[in-house]
Design goal:
With 352 residues, this protein is an alpha/beta fold. The chain has one domain: Histone deacetylase domain (Arginase, Chain A). Helix content is 36%, strand content 15%. The protein is built from 11 helices and 10 strands. Helix 10 links the parallel strand 9 and strand 10. The chain is globular.
């Protein structure tokens, strides 16, 4: 067994509390709740081998390198002005004020000249509302990822960042899939500015990391490898196919492995070995793992049948690469078992 795994979180994660998401016009309870982070934090504290700390770092210099300035301005101002944008008369008792898009661009060169137009320009679904604490939570979540990446540059081999909101669906200038700031991408950008020639990102969330792919699609210095449910059956639907291999100088630095619904431990691990083989051949200075535990058999919005025990095997396979690794938290919505799944994975990272 290796020593303690350093981990970071932010109190702001617990204040981001979307109540509802809208699917096919139907309003339902939001799956990405503060209970997720609370459950993980509790499990980490009880694990005996994770050293959990509050991250204190200014992540804006690297966030601004990943996301467009108009997008960040929109997110900040909308979150700040939520009470002005949503009148009291439009809010039902016990409901939190929240912004959802109501129209999306329908031409090639859209011009957003008011708040309603901007919502559609920067928000690609109705699952990802903006609330009064959303901007702070998203910025602090990305800063947690940077704090973890910073430890790697100081010689640490294994770090975990409890990032919430998650990030891998956030594109350069668009939020969606519960994500606002792309935590993994921001951490990768930080590592690049600290001298890394090559960074690899391995995404094992159930859903394709369209945002991470979007950000690095034309870059050869950041490898993106994703294993996810076939986009024919699962969000985000429009990306995640095998023929998406990168563009320009980034061609050949993007790999997608879509898998069918019902995939279990054994079938999944065969694809993991293939993905990790690609990463090893790339010889990155650092590895960032976008860890989504919505691949678990009990996940309410999942499609795979992975077991809690399997995540330990997955962690062991990753650490055997011998690459300094930062894991950032993505999805996982079976809240009662989420902490156990994360601890199982991290336990695998302690094995050599």
């Amino acid at each position: 067994m290796r020593g303690e795994i350093p981990a970071f979180y932010t109190e702001a994660s617990f204040r981001h509390s979307p109540q509802y998401e809208i699917l096919n016009g139907q309003k339902g309870d939001h799956e990405e709740t503060a209970k997720r982070a609370l459950n993980i934090a509790k499990a980490l504290r009880e694990s005996g081998f994770v050293n959990l700390n509050t991250a204190v770092i200014n992540g804006m210099p690297w966030i601004e390198q990943v996301h467009s300035a108009p997008y960040l301005k929109f997110l900040q101002e909308t979150s700040r002005d939520i009470n002005l944008l949503v009148p009291d008369s439009k809010t039902k008792k016990r409901d939190l004020k929240a912004i959802y898009p109501s129209v999306h661009p329908y031409n090639r060169n859209p011009r957003a000249t008011n708040s309603v137009a901007e919502m559609g320009l920067y928000m690609f679904d109705t699952y990802t509302p903006i609330l009064i604490d959303t901007y702070e939570a998203a910025i602090d979540s990305a800063s947690c990822a940077i704090a973890g990446a910073q430890l790697l540059t100081q010689g640490e081999n294994t770090v975990y960042s409890l990032t919430r909101p998650p990030g891998h669906h956030a594109e350069k200038a668009m939020m969606g899939g519960y994500c606002y700031i792309n935590n993994a991408a921001v951490a990768a950008e930080f590592l690049k500015t600290k001298g890394a020639e090559r960074v690899a990102i391995f995404d094992f969330d159930l859903h394709h990391g369209n945002g991470t792919q979007d950000i690095f699609y034309d870059r050869p210095d950041v490898l993106f490898v994703s294993i996810h449910a076939d986009p024919k059956i699962k969000f985000p639907y429009y990306t995640g196919y095998e023929d998406e291999v990168g563009d320009g100088q980034g061609r050949g630095a993007n790999y997608n492995f879509p898998l069918p619904g019902g995939t279990g431990d054994e079938e999944y691990h065969k694809k993991v070995e293939e993905a990790l083989g690609i990463i090893k051949k790339y010889e990155p200075n650092y590895l960032i793992v976008s860890a989504g535990f919505d691949t678990h058999a009990k996940d309410p919005i999942g499609a795979f049948n992975l077991s809690t025990k399997y995540y330990q095997k997955l962690g062991r396979s990753i650490v055997n690469l011998g690459i300094p690794t930062l894991t950032v938290q993505e999805g996982g919505y079976a809240t009662k078992v989420l902490g156990s799944n994360v601890v199982s994975y991290l336990k695998g990272l302690t094995e050599v």
